[in-house]
Amino acid sequence: MKKADAVVDAGTCGFVTSVVATVTAENQATFAIESPCEHVQRIAVAIVEDGPFGVYDDMEWQKESRLRETLRTALKGCYPWCPVPLAVFKTMQIAAGLSLPKDIIIKLSLDAPRAGTQTATSPEKE
Predict the structure, then answer these.
(1) Given this structure, which CATH class describes domain 2-95?
(2) CA separation for the pair 65, 31 (Å, rounded)
(3) Which letter does DSSP use for residue 88 in this model?
């Protein structure tokens, strides 16, 4: 079994969520999620009840999967752009060895890019 974990600071709601994905040799994924958010707590319960999930069944983004359906159903009534579902998928991919454990960073601003920060068109600084 392989494990991967993520900590999600969801931003304006102020909630911090912990996601742990465990993938077996048979490529079945289970999850443990802890959060003070009542919506994410519903995800945590649903994901245990509906799991385990086939890793490769959930890798095709164009195709509906049990994990996607579970997350979507559990998040009803929640902000639709909550970053926790993405963290669920990424931790599963990392635990399965299908993605590298690299942080995803999204910096948001109403103003022009901050001095010294990269933009989508700027070359990476070494």
Answers:
(1) alpha beta
(2) 16
(3) H
| Residue-level pLDDT at 84 | 93
Instruction: Delimit the domains of the chain by residue range.
Output: 2-95
Lookup: tokens for 64: 């509906």
| Tokens of residue 48, six digits | 């245990």
d(CA 67, CA 65): 5
Radius of gyration of the chain (CA): 16
80 phi/psi in degrees, rounded to 5: -65, -15
| pTM (two decimals) | 0.82
pLDDT tens-digit series, residues 13-46: 889 999 999 999 999 999 999 999 999 999 999 9
In angstroms, how far apart are the furthest CA atoms of the chain? Answer: 48
Distance CA 87, CA 73 (A): 17
Q: In the predicted model, what is the mean pLDDT of the chain?
A: 87
